[in-house]
Amino acid sequence: MNDKIKELAEKLQRLADGQGNENEKMNAKRKLDELCKKYGFNTESFKDDKTSLRTFKWKDHNDKTILGQVITKVLNKMIRDISIYNVRVRGNLKPKSIGVYLTDSQYLEILYLYSFYSDLWFKEQKFFLNVFINKHYIFAECQPGEDPKRNREEEMRVRSALRAMQDATPHKAITHNTKGEK
Question: For the chain, what percentages of helix, strand and coil (3-state, to nearest 5) are there?
């Protein structure tokens, strides 16, 4: 499980069971219940290793790959050593979700890391597309006096990525008649 979530849940449990005033106890209990509901676990589940089938949905191939890598990271096993079940939605031939037997803490950690890395991948894809467009000059030339806005740190990151990408030039397949000749 994500250490931060687990620490928060344990801290809230101590506050709810502790010797503070009643308002603090009730507030901690309410927050703990919200956390348990949000991530689908109970406070007793931290103490046992009971597994249950948990399902995860993905959007596309890259998302599925990230999910698989996160599962292997959390379980510390190769993907071939993990029993993963395809979950099919009625009427859809291709499954868009999988099931894995996990403890509650493993499930929480996978949810957290999957969300984190999926969001990061989305941001990196946008960056990569920008670098790709710049590397291959797929844009209109700036007019004299125009200066595209980009901060210095972003500019250095783009330049570094530009150097890492391969050079490729398309061969011109269509020529344009610029003189009006037929």
Answer: 55, 10, 35
Alpha helices in 40-103 (DSSP H): 61-75
Which residues pair with residue 160 across a beta bridge?
none
Strands of the 52-57 sheet, one edge to the other: 52-57, 97-102, 84-87
Cα angle 96-102-107, degrees, rounded to a multiple of 5: 70
Whole-angstrom CA distances from 125 to 57, 63, 117, 128 are 20, 12, 12, 5
d(CA 61, CA 126): 17
Report the domain count for the chain: 2
C-alpha closest to that of 106 among 78, 66, 70, 65? 70
Residue 19 lies in a domain: yes
pTM over 0.85: no
Q: Which residues constitute the domain of residue 31?
A: 1-48
State how far the Cα of 112 lies from the Cα of 105, in Å rounded to an integer: 11
pLDDT tens digits for 67-98? 999 999 888 888 777 777 776 666 665 668 88
Evaluate whether residue 105 is within a structural domain: no
